[in-house]
Amino acid sequence: MEQILIVEDDRGLNRGLCKALKGEDRQLVSCLDLKTARLQLLCGGISLVLLDINLPDGSGLELLREIKTDYSDLPVILLTANDTDMDIVEGLEQGADDYMTKPFSLPVLRARVNTQLRKRWAARQREVIQIDHFRFDFGNMAFSVGEAKVELSKTEQKLLHLLVANRGRIMSRGDLVDRIWTDGADYVDENALSVTVKRLRDKLNAHEYIRTVYGLGYSWVMKHE
Fold first, then answer.
1. Predicted confidence (pLDDT) per residue in 136-191, tens digit
2. Integer-rounded Cα radius of gyration of the chain
3. β-sheet bridge partners, residue 30
4. What stretch(es) of the chain map to CATH 1.10.10.10?
5. Which uninterrupted H or E stretch holds 187?
6. Any idea which fold 2-124 has?
7. Are residues 54 and 80 in contact, defined by beta-carbon separation less than 8 angstroms?
């Protein structure tokens, strides 16, 4: 589940952005000021930030700098009425991934949001994740538990990446099925996900890490944080 944080004090525009960007696999988190936005970031799970610059309790550029320091891979798109070349250059130099001036086209905004989310997903697929005695190198498809190498199927790799990229959060069965079996098949056997989870647990000996949340889905549980 992708989460987009919208930080915009114009209530009408904020509601419009939430409506324009909503989707079945996407959650919109709405904020009107910097204080609330900071609290939402601390909760974790944010995939992208849409950030106004002129906010009632300060400049969005302050929050942009904080995000790029504490969450360096989190994309930020600035939304602002400040439309001079100097304003745009300043925003980009502060670390913004994109910059849109008001008024803007909602279809163009959706396209830019989708582009940033695809970039982030592609970058995460190339990353190496080290968790306790597990090492997952998704770019080179090399996986190990301690000193032992583990061979995973493509489907198992997709499942593993979704779980560890969202570790600590519950991934619903429906979301996992939709994002793992993306070959256009009209029907996926209900048991396919359960079988894949069992095989992954057994291969990694990760029974204490891959937890079934009955009635909801699955979660990679952090054991030693």
1. 988 788 999 999 999 999 899 989 988 988 888 888 888 888 778 865 455 567 68
2. 20
3. 6
4. 127-220
5. none
6. Rossmann fold (3.40.50)
7. yes
